[in-house]
Specification:
This protein has 300 residues and is α/β, with parallel strands linked by helices. The strands form two sheets. It has an eight-stranded mixed sheet with strand order 1-4-5-6-7-8-9-10. Strands 2-3 form a two-stranded antiparallel sheet. α7 links the parallel β7 and β8. α3 packs parallel to α4, α7 runs parallel beside α9 and α9 runs antiparallel to α10. The longest helix is centred in the middle third of the chain and has 15 residues. The two termini are 35 Å apart.
Amino acid sequence: MFDIYPIRYIEPVYRPPSEAESLILPVTNGCSWNHCTFCEMYTAPQKKFHARPEQEVLETIRLLGEHPYGCTARRVFLADGDAMVLSTRRLLAVLAAIRKHLPGVHRVSSYCLPRNLRKKSVEELKELADAGLKLVYVGAESGDNTVLERINKGETFESTREGLEKLGKAEITRSVMILNGLGGTRYSEAHALHSAELANATQPEFLATLVVSFPNGETRLRTAFPDWEPLDVPGLLREMERFIGRLELQRTVFRSDHASNWLVLRGNLPQDKEKMLVHLREAIAAPEAAPLRPAWARGL
């Protein structure tokens, strides 16, 4: 039934950069929302959303426990786009099977759409945390309601804030992502300031930025955002300066080192805030002397 590993993958398969060493375990296929006009991850026909059959997932975990690779697994990432769309009961069954058959695993993580937390109470989320779900990645994209509407995100500032606060109360670590440049030239300032406001209101443990990009073109984005115009590199850097300048975080690991980012920034907030702002201002003032990533190295 399986050639190498007892896992039925439907490509393409995505995972966060920090899950590079994790066992990728699909519990759904595609994304349950999949209407965001900036996102091309799950638009292929074979990625049409559906929940994987429960018995298939549980049997996969059991077989992994008998496989040499399963014995070495320390982290598991629940794929595809938002495993949290599954019921609490199903997620608890998956987590119980991981504990039973993959006892070496010490962290389970997944992507998470705020909309899929609306029907989950803090108590349910705490139950999932106690069962092994330690980290979720939330693509907030922006804190600006106009930008969120234009990209058809299906979220608002308030719905994202509410979801992140629920996760925080349940003691599930939150890794939040903001898209640099998503508002284009028209909404750049509002995008930066309201995204910082969202981070300040929720105090995520991890915060990251990526530069928005469209390898397959901008047609899909422009269906609801016809006046979108991309920021040039100086504009992207100025937007980042506004964003970081407004952050008031007490204990957050910040990363802007994805392949899409022109200027690599890393630090712990608040202590490294001024250092990152200095790097940004130096790059804005003298881009020719700044350590900007060359276009060919951006992996896009």
